[in-house]
Specification:
The chain is mainly α. It has one domain (about 1-265). Helices cover about 80% and strands about 0% of the residues. The chain is built from 9 helices and no strands. It has helices at about 1-20, 25-45, 50-70, 70-95, 105-130, 135-160, 175-195, 200-230, 245-265. The longest helix has about 30 residues, at about 200-230. It starts with a helix and ends with a helix.
């Protein structure tokens, strides 16, 4: 399993970076939209939508993306704020699980899918359109990947105390701290390369830590739904990794928070 995960990651990471560096805004937006729609297909399964109706959910998601794209100039900031409030709500659901089990009826899960996926697309497109868009997206990727990889190895080596065992038995508090330590290293590296001031460096460190923690929340949130659904992976499209949602769950949570923090602190 680890070998498959490693091979898939070694293929996906260069492709993701190539899309960031090489694609203009419009093709990049379309690519992100396709990934979101694939994620929507998998989410429709988590939401217990009947298979005959799952494509309708994907179509509705596509229509919302097109509407959002048309109104992006006016709705970007409100969408980011709404996403931030949603992830605070998600934290209360994950932290109290399994007491919150069953609150997610199908209509609620349908809405939650929109609140997870659409802000993620808005965030990625918003970053791509930013004057320092390539730098921001690469930093976001490294923070999310760093939080994941750091947590994996720190958890394997030092993990003793489970984080939220009823949601994700494999995650430990030590692992999360290891992941956050990598996020700090990423932030310091970008600060040095960008020659940021002391104040901007402190802001970037804070943003990196918050982004890393929220990326863990995104992973846990999807794990909670998979546990209720009784499945291990959201799909089978990626060998060793499962589905698209299994790969972007951390990013869907981290991207809106990261971009909103950048707008608020104006680091770049």
């Amino acid at each position: 399993m680890f070998k498959e995960r490693l091979i898939t990651a070694l293929v996906l990471a260069p492709l993701a970076l190539a899309a960031v560096f090489l694609l203009p805004l419009l093709p990049f937006s379309i690519l992100m939209g396709l990934l979101v729609l694939l994620g929507g297909w998998e989410w429709s399964n988590l939401a217990l939508i009947r298979r005959t109706h799952r494509m309708l959910y994907v179509v509705s998601l596509a229509l919302l993306l097109l509407t959002t794209d048309y109104l992006l100039r006016w709705v970007e900031l409100p969408v980011l704020v709404l996403a931030s409030l949603f992830w605070i709500f998600a934290l209360t659901r994950v932290g109290r699980y399994p007491q919150t089990r069953g609150f997610n009826c199908t209509p609620s899960k349908i809405l939650i899918g929109y609140l997870v996926l659409i802000p993620a697309w808005v965030s990625m497109v918003g970053m791509k359109a930013h004057p320092q868009g390539t730098l921001l997206i690469v930093m976001l990727f490294l923070l999310v990947w760093g939080a994941d990889v750091g947590a994996y190895f720190a958890g394997k080596r030092f993990g003793r105390n489970k984080l939220i065992p009823k949601v994700s038995p494999g995650k430990t508090r030590e692992g999360v701290l290891g992941g956050l330590a990598v996020c700090v290293l990423v932030a310091i590296s970008f600060s040095i390369l960008s020659k940021l001031s002391f104040g901007a460096t402190l802001g970037l460190l804070l943003l990196a830590l918050v982004t890393g923690m929220v990326s863990v929340l995104g992973d846990l949130f999807e794990s909670m739904f998979k546990r209720e659904r009784g499945i291990k992976d959201s799909g089978r499209i990626l060998p060793g990794h499962g589905g698209i949602l299994d790969r972007i769950d951390s990013l869907t949570a981290a991207a809106p928070i990261f971009l909103l923090g950048q707008y608020w602190m104006q680091i770049y």
